[in-house]
Amino acid sequence: MRVGILGLWHETNTYATHQATLADFADFELAQGHEVLEQNVDTGSVIGGFADSPDHELVPIFSAGAWPCGPADRVTIEALLERAGRALRAAGPLDGLLVNLHGAMVADGYPDTETALLSVVRETVGSVPLAAVLDLHANPSPELVESCEVLVSYDTYPHVDMRERGREAARLLGDVFAGRRLRTAVGKLPLLVCPLAQATDAEPMRSLQRRAAARARAAGLVRICIPAGFAYSDVDRVGMSVLAIHDEGDEAAARDVIAETLADITEQTDAFMVARDDAATAVRRAIAGAARPVVLADVADNIGGGSPGDGTALLAELLAQHAQDAVVTVADARVARLAADLGTGAEIEALVGGKTDRRHGDPVRVRGRVVTVTDGRYRTQGSWMTGREFSMGTTAVLRVEGITLVVTERPTPPFHAEQLSSVGVDARSAKIIVAKGAIAWRAAFGDIAAEVIEVATPGACPIDVASLPRNTTPMTLPPTTFVARPGVKP
User: Fold this and answer.
1) What is the DSSP string of 274-299?
2) Taking the model in full, what pTM does it have?
3) In degrees to the nearest 10, what's the CA dihedral of 74, 80, 81, 82?
4) Dihedral-angle region of residue 436 (phi above 0 means left; psi in -120 to 50 means alpha; beta otherwise)
5) How far apart are CA 260 and CA 479, in angstroms?
6) 438, 380, 434: which is closest to 136 by C-alpha?
7) pLDDT (tens place) for every residue of the chain, 490 residues total
């Protein structure tokens, strides 16, 4: 079977200031034709999992992805949709498609961007079967589910099963080719959850997933997933979802399992509530404790959730409290370039961070020495997209009082230990490490963290998700099975 590979991936924080542009996609992934596989074969990405399938003639078509931030502007999203459509038309006849999506992408004029992409797909290739993979933080709409025969989401957070989910989607598409009539059912709750409560190796998610899987097995369903949702998005499809893949004829069983799982989630609502110390309290605890290293999770400046990475609340407190042996990463292109111009060994004085908006703190004046300047490139051996190359842009390591300050040109989520080791910083020798994330940083530093303090910092990804203003009302969707159809309109 001739199977196309297509991707569009972006976790959109509608409260973030920076809009995604074509340049942001070009910096992460903007590939067509053979480049799609060249960038993903033998890596831990979803498309890397698609590429592992030996049973199909794979036709790489188009893939675009960018680090999380604000919505893509209209020029960007329409250019991406146009490129995807043109590449699909050039690919020739296809028997099916494997599609890598996020599920929480929003763009100007396209509040349900993934459905808009699949509309382009359906209008181009018709009713051929589609199998798609979503992030665990997806906010899938009923229209998105209606666009696919098979829709699965990651099972893990931190996300370490992306390649496995790509393989699973390819296998299930093969079952469809063999004559199996698969369908996907969905149900939704308007429950908005901080990512701190979504870790799948902790409660309540661990037991929710285990009980849901047991129900699905007992009912003879093919698969069940619990996309925990992305709360930092002001769209009506936001919230927790349950997806059930089942054989045609098992709609009633799928609805029952979804309904029971939604009821289970509702019973755990209190377990999803989160409260943490403010920056001043958290820094005092980290300095006073004997453990090392202590990871201070800068939750509201979660780069992996769309924040700019230039929050200064923890940096300011570490300096004010005279912390020693602390490592802090801040995204500040101007300071990174200034350090590069001054050169290694030079003295530097600058206002660092707080330049994107006032939501993440004010710029902090620092005086120190330039220790290292690099191009910020590294290839990860970690568990998130293993084997892929990433770039932080020009990156400078500064020594400022008792702090090692890593200043990057581009905000880069702390998903990989190589983010520090590639610039000569030994995280194991630190007393304090500031990680600009909620949970996913554990893939990089979880194995060395002697203590973790999650901090209620200010920013676009606050722990208190109810503090964000909302213009839309999250939907409630009872368990429903859709039959995939062509021509779904965005």
Assistant:
1) ---B-HHHHHHHHHHSS-SSEEEEEG
2) 0.94
3) 100
4) beta
5) 10
6) 438
7) 999 999 999 999 999 999 999 999 999 999 999 999 999 999 999 999 999 988 899 999 999 999 999 999 999 999 999 999 999 999 999 999 999 999 999 999 999 999 999 999 999 999 999 999 999 999 999 999 999 999 999 999 999 999 999 999 999 999 999 999 999 999 999 999 999 999 999 999 999 999 999 999 999 999 999 999 999 999 999 999 999 999 999 999 999 999 999 999 999 999 999 999 999 999 999 999 999 999 999 999 999 999 999 999 999 999 999 999 999 999 999 999 999 999 999 999 999 999 999 899 999 999 999 999 999 999 999 888 899 999 999 999 999 999 999 999 999 999 999 999 999 999 999 999 999 999 999 999 999 999 999 999 999 999 999 999 999 999 999 999 888 766 444 3
CA 388, CA 380: separation in Å to the nearest integer?
Answer: 6
DSSP string for residues in 391-406:
E--SEEEEEETTEEEE
Tokens of 266: 């509702």
The full length of the chain comes to: 490
**Strand 377-379 to strand 432-435: parallel, antiparallel, or no bridges (unpaired)?**
unpaired
Residue type, 197: A
* Helix, strand, coil percent values for the chain (each to nearest 5): 35, 25, 40
Q: What is d(CA 26, CA 468) in angstroms, rounded to the nearest whole number?
A: 30
